[in-house]
Amino acid sequence: MSKRLVEVENLKKYYPITVGLLARHVADVKAVDGVSFYILEGETLGLVGESGCGKSSLGRTLLRLEEPTAGRVLYKGSDIMKWGKRQMKELRKEAQMIFQDPQSSLDPRMTIGDSIGEALLIHGVGTEKERLETVEELLKRVGLEPQHAMRYPHELSGGQKQRVGIARALAVNPKLIVADEPVSALDVSVQAQILNLIMDLQRELGLAYLFIAHDLSVIGQISDRIAVMYLGQIIELADRTELFSHPLHPYTEALLSAIPLPDPHQKRKRILLQGEVPSPVNPPLGCRFHTRCPRVMKLCRREQPELQLLEGDHLVSCHLYG
Amino acid sequence: MNNTVLEVRQLRTYFFTRSGVVKAVDGISFGLRKGESLCLVGESGCGKTATALSVLRLIDSPPGRIMDGEILYHGEDLLRCSAERLRQIRGNRIAMIFQDPQTSLNPVFTVGDQVAEQIKLHLRLKSKPAMERALHLMEEVGIPQARERMRDYPHQFSGGMKQRVMIAAALSCEPEILIADEPTTALDTTIKAQILDIFRDLKQNRNMSILFITHDLGTVAGIADRIVVMYGGRLAEAGTVLDIFDQPKHPYTHGLINCLPSISTRRQRLTPIPGMIPSLIDPPEGCIFTPRCERRMPICSQERPKEVVISGEHVVVCHLYS
After folding, report:
1. Does B63 sit behind a cis peptide bond, omega within 30 degrees of 0 on the bond before it?
2. Record: fold of A4-106+176-321
3. Which of A13, A19, A319, B67 could form a disulfide with A32 if both were Cys (CB 3.0 to 4.6 A apart)?
4. What tens digit of pLDDT does each residue of A116-132 get?
5. Chain B closest CA to A266's CA: distance in Å?
6. Hey, are the CB atoms on A258 and B192 less than 8 Å from each other?
7. CATH topology of domain B4-93+175-321
8. DSSP-derived pairing of the beta strands A70-75 and A4-19
């Protein structure tokens, strides 16, 4: 029975909006608005949602790359929000991040070898010789050649840069990797290579992933459990197979029905969502999804539904199941 | 029965850069019929955007140059007609939507002005009737509260809405042909689905011919009548949507379809296409897919394969079928 590596309790991240020369605080972008979940050792939790749902903010806040507004994050049972600088530095060895844009996350003036080895240097791991050996091993592990260590980011393709990002994250032997849209910017043939790499590494190293993406096919490929996010909140969370076979929340159903299938024969019945995602500055009262929900009821406009645990370890936040 | 509205013949577009001559489009031919949607499919660097830009002579010269070929619009060669004639056709008979609506819309003009601009130019309507027409178009593409929103600026619209504005602007003169370059790529899944619906309606209600450029096979399956698969600036395979998905012949097409993650491939390793997209500077002799092809033969690196008809519309460019 796997242990809970990370436990998130009612996490919130608000970005203040200020107006005028004196920066008067007038409102907040409620990017993450009360999110709770856990990640087991060695598992992949997929986090899916459309732009503006707060998934990237959640990923960064989870690792305290941005300070949360409220809530707790327990790493191996201890609340990292209370940790000081020294403990946080230790956390950086345990929990790493892979970013979406391989271009902007690599320092263009550092060689690949230096980028990968930087964390080792910062944490004082090994002698210089040992660090060079580790970098070489990491390059091989992610499918690159040792000679890539001498190259600069601009000399590599998108897929290669993403492999470097992964090697860099692995350098410190983490237990958890937060992957924020790691394959969205890649062509499909390269995407497949990188997804395979991510899955292989999990098997070899027992890594846990929080895998953030907007593409449900990619999420479905890689996740053990999936959390669906809408306007700052998790509205459904279930085992991968369970979610795909029994989606409960109307938003999840719509997302699933909107996946463009590479199959001209399958004419899926599309669930059309009206309108656009509301602004996270002023989310709708009641259930946040009610303005677009094809199954909206009177109650939905007044009251926010609670996240309930249903049969099959299936969490959903919707009045249809109240 | 010849209802071909646009015919591209042996198009070659090269870019003369400091690193060498990039053979972005290296001899491609295809035809577009009235009321059909033809998808140009391929990954980055395959030449699909360069092809689309060449049709309307929108290639930046220098460094680009259309070296050779014909672009026949109802028999008239657009590559050899006068600049004046081209101006009459662009925006009026053949319209184009570019990938990133962010950069295509002028931030200092209202949306209404930008949709009406083409109408005033080509149809020579006065301001008021032009704006009325623009309003109808914005309503047609599903922009809510169109009358009020006409006076808004691009930055006040979401990605999906901006794309609708682009489509409205493109439709303004009732073009016969619409060229759409990755129109849904930057959009969320549910919005993608909405925009694809608009294209399907256009095809049906206006009998419009659409040249749809994308790398996403899922989108293609949803919208294409016929497909042209491009690789390395050349044709790999072409046929009806059923030909390509049910009976892909070219190893690249096979690879492309097989490497897609899907919600049904439960956590299995994907089958990626090995290697990387080739540089188009000084491509080697023979078939440009050879280094990545699992079924390569000696002749593949010696001779460029010729087009072979498999059946009806279905053609492939590959030595396996010569």
Report:
1. yes
2. Rossmann fold (3.40.50)
3. A13
4. 999 899 988 889 999 99
5. 9
6. yes
7. Rossmann fold (3.40.50)
8. antiparallel
